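>> received
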Amino acid sequence: SGALVAMMGRLVEPIWGPQELMKFVGVITALTGVSTLVTATFICMIASSTWLTDYYCGFQPVIAGLTVALKQLKPDFEVQFFFIPIRLKLLPFAFVVFTVTMELFFGSGPRPISTMMDTNGQEVLQKLPSRSGSSLLVMYGAYIAWLYLRYFQSYLNTSNSSAGPGDRGDASESFAFHTLFPEMLQPHARKAGAFVHRHCHPFIIRLLAVNRHTDSPNASPNGAQGRSTGGSS
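>> returned
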């Protein structure tokens, strides 16, 4: 996983710069951890479950986030995904589906080992309860990455020369939420994106300190940021 993160990071770092790349990885790691904790707590509250005592680890959310970044930066670039040629614009969806499928069919993998003391004071090896949580981590990693790149990333720290001072996020139609899915699923994803956009977009706008893309066709005459349609969320 670490080698894959390093390889993908080498494709993103020349465009963003090392500081923005480190910030992106930090945001994905922190918010995925918080989101997973909240989800596990909620599940334990409504059902008898061991989710809070399970073991979560790995670079999966960072990898998922970097697939979204590559989809944004080089959508038509083609790579080999397990010997199958695929364009980067479909890589986030393919990675999520692959991870969920592997976890459903092969489970959570080997359990971590911990050294424990028995009643006689002797050290014994014990397998800890383990749920890799790969599916949850990957889905949160991909979605949080899209939210960050869509609304919050500042172009002041990237090589995007067309962005003006204070510009944040990528409001282009080619990076709308439904574009993360194959074309046959995009109509359904567009509806889901419209629902999220309608309820969350006003909060996101208030959260941002500056307006972005004031020169876009959706911008209002007084310079305030215009709202895009639900389908472009």
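>> Residues 18-46 form the longest helix (29 residues).
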